[in-house]
Amino acid sequence: MHEQPCRLVLPVRPAAEPDTSAPFEAPEGTTPITTTQMTPPEQRWEVTRDLIDYGAALNIVKDRGTVHFDAMDLDVGCRAHEQYTSVADDFTSPAGESTWTMSFRRKDWAVQVRTSTTLTCDTEEFHINATLDAYERGRRVASRTWNESIPRDAL
């Protein structure tokens, strides 16, 4: 640090200049695609607290339901469920679990992708376990699993 006097000079717009709109034309857009809601969406955020053991949980549901895209004759579904938990001052207790399902269906063709991820920890590491499963017409065609541990590095 220098203890010498310093100053910051910023440009100043003259107050006499009139405010004028930018020379842009009106925004353009397209007509929204026609859809039909096939199953209702669901949104939920629930917080629970255990006042004896000092546990807390957040449960989240983000479900867009199933939407039919009329022009493409395509059904699309998306549902997520997430849960996060912890116990007061127990810094090894925080955990999170997330499960997502995406589905696409048209006539005889149907595919679905499911992901599940859990995050836990101990005093030394964070532990991540994740699975991705892909289905075609209800039959699993691909699967991948990850099991990783990451040092906490004083966290």
**Tally of contiguous helical segments:** 0
Low-confidence stretches: none
Percent of residues in helices = under 10%
- Secondary structure tally: strands: 8
SS content category: mainly beta
Strand content: over 45%
Looking at the structure, what is the overall shape? flat
Order of helices and strands: EEEEEEEE
Instruction: Measure the end-to-end span.
Output: 31 Å
Gyration radius (Cα, Å) is 26 Å
Keywords:
8-stranded antiparallel sheet, mainly beta, 0% helix, flat, 8 strands, 155 residues
Describe this structure in words.
The protein has 155 residues and is mainly β. The chain has strands at 35-39, 42-50, 55-69, 74-87, 90-106, 109-121, 125-136, 139-151. It has a domain at 45-151. It contains no helices and eight strands. It is flat and about 70 Å long. The relative contact order is 0.11. The model has no long low-confidence stretch (mean pLDDT 93).
